[in-house]
DNA sequence: AGCGAACTGTTCGTACTGCGAATCAAAATA
DNA sequence: TATTTTGATTCGCAGTACGAACAGTTCGCT
């Protein structure tokens, strides 16, 4: 029963550690801007325009009750705002304020810079390999999740 | 100054999303065993034998005061125990109880299974590409961190 | 030996995170 | 229209994480 392990010796461990590195970057950058990691993640998701609560919950992997609180705190800091949806008077879409956009760009840029700085050491072949493998994994996990 | 962005279109995004997938797996598996993600991470770190608080804080990226609480809760559940160090009466080493070992193996196995199940869909070239890229990134980040 | 600096871990107060159950209003469906 | 479903909030609870202040221990230096 060690065959699977033999064929991927420590590969999973490496993935976990990589995730940890990314997480660390996110945490550090967020902190530098007086944000919590979750708040930073939220802002980055909102940077392309307003998003509904449903989408947000799915993308952040949060229960709706958790999301309400997160939005509350971000709204209280004047970084985002709830905009009621015209078609459905229950629903609301979350959009960034001016200050929110500024912070979102700053944190997104900070994270990108630091990760690109790491990725810069990869040679083009490794870059491509990483890209294609990650894309495949993501497609895979997205396909598996809706279960 | 958009050159760097042009040369890595979305590559960083892929990394972030990959981290998110790994995180999700960890959260799900932990929950299945009545653990929080952080508690699961802790158990996995302790599986190779007792570790001192200093090391733990560094590896989990936690402040010591945060670590105290985490250990408290895990100890209260009977999964780990503080063992005082013989050489330094201030220090203590955290070790797993029998039940802790059991849970640690279960969660570690669960995470590994699910990630390997994902990775199994990659063809060998992608696997190798991912491996080498991730190893490189980890080496890079470890070299950069001690700053 | 003795004194002070550095280190290890805890306590305390505070804010944030995240969940599930219960609730309410607004759709959607029968 | 009556019923069900859906979108979001509220509440209570446990866990997470930080920094400052603290106590005991060890270390370095004289």
From TrEMBL, chains A, B:
Residues 8-139 form the HTH marR-type domain. PROSITE patterns: HTH_MARR_2. It comes from the Bacteria. SUPFAM superfamilies: Winged helix' DNA-binding domain. Pfam families: MarR_2. SMART domains: HTH_MARR. InterPro entries: HTH_MarR-typ, MarR/SlyA-like, WH-like_DNA-bd_sf, WH_DNA-bd_sf. Gene3D superfamilies: Winged helix-like DNA-binding domain superfamily/Winged helix DNA-binding domain. This is MarR family transcriptional regulator. The lineage of its organism: Bacteria, Bacillati, Actinomycetota, Actinomycetes, Streptosporangiales.
């Amino acid at each position: 029963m060690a065959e699977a392990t033999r064929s991927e010796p420590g590969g999973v461990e490496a993935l976990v550690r990589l995730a940890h590195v990314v997480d660390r970057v996110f945490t550090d950058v967020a902190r530098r801007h007086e944000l919590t990691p979750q708040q930073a993640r939220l802002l980055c998701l909102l940077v392309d325009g307003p998003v509904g609560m449903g989408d947000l919950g799915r993308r952040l992997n949060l229960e709706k009750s958790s999301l309400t609180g997160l939005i509350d705190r971000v709204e209280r800091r004047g970084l985002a705002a709830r905009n009621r949806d015209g078609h459905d008077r229950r629903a609301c879409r979350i959009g960034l304020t001016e200050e929110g956009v500024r912070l979102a760009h700053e944190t997104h840029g900070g994270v990108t810079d630091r990760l690109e700085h790491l990725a810069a050491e990869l040679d083009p072949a490794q870059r491509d390999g990483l890209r294609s493998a990650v894309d495949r994994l993501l497609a895979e996990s997205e396909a598996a999740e809706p279960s």
